[in-house]
Write a structure and sequence with these properties.
Keywords: Signal. This is SbsA Ig-like domain-containing protein. This protein has 534 residues and is an all-beta fold. The chain has two helices and 45 strands. 1% of the residues lie in helices and 45% in strands. The strands form twelve sheets. Strands 12, 13, 15, 16 and 17 form a five-stranded antiparallel beta sheet that branches. A five-stranded mixed beta sheet has the order 27-36-34-30-31, with no helix packed on it. Strands 38, 39, 41, 42 and 43 form a five-stranded antiparallel beta sheet that branches. A hairpin with a 3-residue loop joins strand 19 and strand 20. The longest helix has 4 residues. The protein is elongated and about 90 Å long.
């Protein structure tokens, strides 16, 4: 397939205005006849003309007219009141079936109603290629259908590069993610899909998602039911897109999210604390007297394992009255007032690394009367001491109240967390639902996840054939199975250039409605590595 460009423009007719008054036109132009006729064989000309039942207007014809298979043959064009005329600059190839698609370029002159799915099929030989292929495109991470994705067929070869080569045949998905290509010549093809955001028919790995079949297709008959799942695979090295200098901190914002990092200071005595403030922002904290500039090497690793070394000089701003300190706050998980079991993991995420804890200012009460001990040795720290995880075991029957008084947590900049009180009620099983099912797979490692409407994973189990999710809050959920091929306990994306598929994600086909005091059973998910590796 090829996007035809325009070297020379003929004069165009003036636009036809709608006369005042009268009923609004809501109908698209209807094709009355064409040269060649649709599905004509033995066509030897270079000129194409389409005739319509009303006055028409044309929008971006050189950009929107698509000829498949791609030829590189450019054309000139004329717009007449009720017709469109194209004259190609080179002959069409012999014994080839062509499809000229006008997408939504042709509209009626008054209300601009587009003639959708307008295309002309003809052959320069004695027969029309008649094979077809169809299927569906979904988003791998969400399971949702992807509309307006480009699905392309490419000549089969080992060195295919969709970042530089346009497809021979193509289709766009509808609002349900379905696609279909017709009038295809028999042969071997590679098939892939991507959300062609800039409409250039080339895959941009930095901004576009892609899905592909690892093995090529030998098209000898019609094929249906092709499933393509789009995933992000930004393999470009991370770059620093912005920095923010303050008196006591220095922010480094990257152009992509990262999983982890390591900061190496040129001089050991210049080392200062740091943490990931968000998926794509690092913060360094000047917790003591240091030089105004500190060289550092930041080694970052993104979600697909790409490691990048970045050299940066931390430059701290001089003292200013307008430079107010950033607040030291915390986000708890579970959140305030959530129902919990008597034993649960309590997570606190701080906006700055914690320098020290004063445990005498931390109080844990069960049912407002019984004091539970706080054992600092049980704390697990992560992200540069900015995330704390602590196992709470309580004798409470009704609720647990945790009070963090002033001074309980001090940041590396010696500012105190303000007094915070968190109350959790002990869950009543009757207020929640239960979900059971079975995993049918020959994959040795997999993850079962229950995801709420906000896309947050609320429960997960590993390698469990008969799973049970207890204490499920009333609400709507998606259930998914992740095939964990590299055994790292998480989903990993793929790499088109290496023909490495993303780890499969299989969704239960329906939304699950969980209710209070209700058991839901029979939610089974099935996946076969043997079948899907063929």
């Amino acid at each position: 397939m090829f996007l035809i460009t325009l070297p020379i423009l003929f004069n165009q007719c003036a636009q036809v205005a709608q006369p005042p008054g009268g009923k609004k036109d809501s109908l698209a132009p209807v094709l009355l006849k064409s040269t060649p006729t649709n599905k004509q064989i033995n066509f030897k000309g270079r000129e194409i003309e389409l005739f319509f039942n009303e006055y028409i207007s044309v929008e971006n014809l050189p950009q929107k007219v698509i000829v498949t298979p791609g030829t590189g043959n450019t054309f000139n064009y004329k717009i007449r009141p009720t017709s469109v005329y194209l004259k190609f600059n080179e002959p069409f190839k012999e014994n080839t079936t062509y499809t000229v698609s006008f997408t939504d370029a042709i509209k009626d002159a008054t209300e601009r109603n587009p003639a959708t799915n307008l295309k002309l099929v003809f052959s320069t030989g004695s027969q029309l290629d008649s094979l077809s292929i169809s299927g569906k495109v979904t988003d791998l991470k969400t399971g949702n259908a992807v509309a307006d994705a480009l699905v392309g067929l490419y000549a089969r070869r080992d060195t295919l590069n969709a970042t530089k080569e346009k497809p021979i045949y193509y289709s766009k998905t509808d609002t349900s993610g379905n696609f279909a290509m017709e009038n295809i010549r028999a042969g071997g093809y590679e098939i892939l899909a991507f959300n062609d955001a800039n409409n250039n028919f080339l895959f941009n790995q930095q901004t576009e998602r892609i899905g592909f079949l690892k093995d090529s297709i030998n098209l000898t008959g019609n094929i249906s039911g092709i499933e393509l799942q789009l995933f992000s695979q930004n393999t470009a090295p991370a770059k620093i897109s912005r920095t923010e200098s303050r008196q006591d901190s220095y922010g480094v914002t990257l152009d992509k999210g990262i999983e982890n990092y390591q900061a190496t200071f040129r001089r050991k005595e210049d080392s200062i604390p740091s943490s990931l403030a968000s998926a794509n922002q690092l913060k360094f904290f000047r917790n003591r007297a240091t030089p105004d500039t500190i060289p550092v090497i930041i080694t970052v690793t993104d979600s697909i394992g790409t490691t990048t070394e970045l050299k940066q000089t931390l430059s701290f701003r001089g003292q200013s009255r307008r430079d107010r300190p950033e607040p030291f706050t915390v986000t708890p998980d579970p959140a305030q007032n959530e129902a919990v079991e008597k034993a649960f993991d309590w997570t606190l995420t701080f906006t700055k690394p914690v320098g020290r804890i004063n445990k005498q200012f931390i109080t844990i009460l069960s049912d407002s009367t019984n004091t539970e001990p706080f054992d600092e040795s049980k704390i697990q720290w992560s992200n540069g001491r900015s995330i704390l995880t602590y196992p709470i075991t309580s004798s409470a029957r009704k609720d647990i109240r945790i009070t963090l008084n002033d001074g309980a947590f001090m940041s590396v900049l010696e500012d105190s967390l303000k007094k915070t009180t968190l109350t959790y009620r002990i869950l009543n099983a009757e207020d929640f639902g239960l979900l059971r099912g079975e995993i049918i797979t020959d994959a040795p490692n997999y993850i079962v996840e229950l995801v709420n409407e906000a896309g947050k994973v609320v429960s997960r189990v590993l390698n469990t054939k008969a799973y049970t999710f207890r204490n499920v809050k009333p609400g709507r959920y998606r259930l998914r199975l992740i095939i964990d091929r590299n055994k790292n306990g998480r989903w990993d994306t793929g790499n088109y250039q290496l023909k490495q598929e993303a780890e499969p994600i299989i969704y239960y086909p329906a939304i699950i409605q969980a209710k209070a005091d209700f058991q839901l059973e029979g939610f089974d998910l099935e996946y076969s590595e043997k079948v899907n590796s063929k």
